[in-house]
Automatic annotation (TrEMBL):
GO biological process, alphabetically ordered: alkanesulfonate transmembrane transport
Subcellular location: Cell membrane
Provenance organism: Nocardia puris
Region (Disordered) location: 1-24
Descriptive protein name: Nitrate/nitrite transport system permease protein
PANTHER family the record matches: ALKANE SULFONATE ABC TRANSPORTER-RELATED, MEMBRANE SUBUNIT, NITRATE IMPORT PERMEASE PROTEIN NRTB
Cellular component per GO, a single term: plasma membrane
Length: 296
């Protein structure tokens, strides 16, 4: 009998185990600290690798252009750095309609790209929902989409000049044609991939078409739409540089072409670096904006 009482005291009941406070806080904190340390190590490693690649790349660049004289066209690292300092030293000057600092060229290009990008989004997103919801309309328009989508955006440039008779509007028209297809196709794909059970539930509840789109399809298709917007913006920024070489008196494309006419190749390299940096910032802004929108 004494042995049974001893066992009863030493073996806790399930209720006592459930009521006992879990001793997991130290282990959770340790895991969080370890994860943060691992993340810091990864970031530090990535930074060091980036610096190493940059140093190696500049070294190869220096060796490849070492035999260039003062009149050589190939840009050297030193000459490119001097041009970078010169261009960024006074980016806001204005001495004429086309003689402006690099800031105004960037502003002109961004204004054209964002205008064309927003127009393309206003057209493509509703059209994508229409085609995604109607198989008949989608099949009827599929030949037009597949024929027009592979056309180079610059091929629309002469047509835009002929129809619009304005270089500024033509540049925006080219951006619209370049940005339209990624948004349209990704929107259609996102609408078609909505879980059929949700659509059946909406029909059971007799939800209206507007309610279905707002409450079911839009949240479900939003990741695909955001992917299309991201691709569209990068495509528009890519195309505007080429378009501005042919139209417009301001913009990064015009700046590059003007520097080539002056045979200032280091300035072209600086422009390429700035174009890439702005494109990177635009992409990060789209990604950041996508994270701020709750979606299902």
């Amino acid at each position: 009998m004494t042995r049974d009482l001893t066992l009863d005291k030493t073996i806790a009941s399930p209720a006592e185990k459930a009521s006992a406070p879990p001793d997991t806080a130290p282990s959770v904190l340790a895991k969080i600290a370890a994860d943060r340390a691992a993340l810091r190590a990864q970031v530090a490693g990535a930074v060091l690798l980036f610096l190493a690649i940059s140093v190696v790349g500049i070294g190869i660049w220096s060796v490849a252009t070492a035999d260039q004289g003062a009149d050589g066209l190939a840009p050297t690292p030193g000459g490119t750095w001097d041009q970078l300092v010169s261009i960024l030293k006074d980016p806001f000057y204005v001495t004429g309609p086309a003689s402006v600092g690099i800031f105004w060229h960037l502003v002109a290009s961004l204004q054209r790209v964002l205008t064309g990008f927003l127009l393309a989004a206003v057209i493509a997103i509703p059209l994508g929902f229409l085609l995604g919801n109607s198989a008949r309309i989608r099949w009827a328009t599929e030949p037009f989409v597949q024929v027009l989508r592979p056309v180079s955006p610059l091929a629309w440039l002469p047509l835009g000049l002929a129809l619009l008779r304005d270089s500024e509007n033509t540049a925006i028209f080219v951006i619209v044609m370049a940005s339209l297809w990624p948004i349209l196709l990704n929107t259609i794909d996102g609408v078609q991939k909505v879980n059929p059970l949700y659509m059946q539930l909406a029909r059971t509840l007799e939800a209206s078409r507007a309610q279905v789109i707002r409450s079911i399809q839009l949240p479900a298709a939003l990741p695909s739409i955001l992917t299309g917007l991201r691709l569209s913006l990068s495509t528009g920024w890519l195309v505007i540089i080429a378009a501005e070489m042919l139209v417009g008196s301001r913009g990064m494309g015009y700046f590059v072409w003007n520097q080539w006419n002056r045979l200032s190749v280091p300035a072209i390299v600086v422009a390429i670096l700035l174009i890439g940096a702005v494109g990177f910032v635009l992409d990060r802004l789209v990604v950041w904006g996508a994270k701020q929108i709750p979606h299902g």
